[in-house]
Write a structure and sequence with these properties.
This protein is of the alpha+beta class and 258 residues long. It has nine helices and twelve strands. The protein has helices at 14-25, 53-59, 76-83, 97-102, 106-109, 133-146, 148-151, 196-208, 244-257, and strands at 3-7, 29-32, 47-50, 93-96, 114-119, 129-132, 154-158, 165-172, 175-184, 187-188, 214-222, 225-232. Strand 8 and strand 9 (175-184) form a beta hairpin. The longest helix has 14 residues, at 133-146. The radius of gyration is 19 Å and the shape is globular.
């Protein structure tokens, strides 16, 4: 049986919820504090890790099934190229924050034109959000002093688009295992009633190309049409209202099939 190694005390009780789902499926669990305790894990045993980005960085070269952890394919520049106009921000530009702000006029650096900005890589270096041009310029100035590495990291910038609803789905072998809504009309909503059309769209997307055997896929409804928001690493994703007992069961099935 696959062992789950879970970082304790994560926000929104994710570690507790996942441990309970493992117990329901009979999976052994090892709780650790984070990257500092990786040495306490017997990595020769087939294991699934769940925790922070730092913890996943510590184990990415040691884990059975490591193709599902921090894959280079979890990058906006990669999956946008593969899924093209199925992606919500397919018209965005890939650049760096320092280059983007250097190209701004003085007026733009003081302005309020809105942009959606997010990191290309799925390393949670910052949270994608809509920002005004003046705020972006101020942020870049601050980063030049305190975090120049982030200033030079790859980002995607696009015009904001109106999203009426978003879902997070957990994909295993190109099929939806479980998932839930996470926002509707700008308000948090963790309804588990996923429309059949969303499931069919997600599986059609995964049939075109898949970044890893196990991953998360966020889908948005924008102007009555479905789009890919992003794909990401399951091993540190938020669960929202997903059925974790089913997720663990399906992960077991994936590893047994290997």
């Amino acid at each position: 049986m696959i062992k789950f190694v879970i970082q304790a005390n994560l926000s929104d009780s994710a570690s507790t919820k996942l441990a309970e789902a493992c117990a329901a499926n009979g999976n052994p669990v090892q709780m650790i504090s984070g990257a500092a305790e990786i040495s306490k894990v017997n990595v020769t045993d087939p294991s699934v890790f769940y925790g922070s980005v730092d913890m996943l960085l510590a184990v990415k070269d040691l884990v059975n099934g490591k193709e599902a952890i921090l894959s280079p394919s979890f990058n906006c520049e990669v999956w946008t190229k593969m899924w093209t106009d199925l992606c919500l921000n397919c018209s965005g530009i890939s650049t760096t924050l320092d280059y983007f702000t250097a190209a701004m006029t003085v007026k733009e650096k003081q302005g309020k034109e809105k942009y959606f900005i997010r990191p290309c890589a799925d390393t949670k270096s910052f949270t994608g959000s809509v920002m005004e041009s003046g705020a972006i310029a101020d942020w870049a100035f601050s980063l030049a002093l305190f975090d120049p590495e982030l200033l030079r990291s790859r980002i995607v910038v696009s015009k904001p688009r109106p999203i009426s609803q978003e879902w997070r789905l957990f994909m295993i072998n190109k099929s939806v295992s479980t998932g839930s809504c996470y926002q509707k009309d700008g308000v948090s909503d963790q309804s588990t009633d996923i429309p059949e059309g969303v499931i069919k769209f997600a599986e059609a997307v995964a049939d075109i190309w898949t970044p890893a055997p196990i991953f998360t896929l966020d889908i948005a409804l924008c102007s009555e049409k479905l789009y890919v928001v992003e794909c990401g690493c399951f091993n540190y994703s938020g669960f929202y209202g997903a059925d974790l007992v089913k997720l663990v069961k399906d992960i077991n099935g994936y590893f047994e099939g290997k």
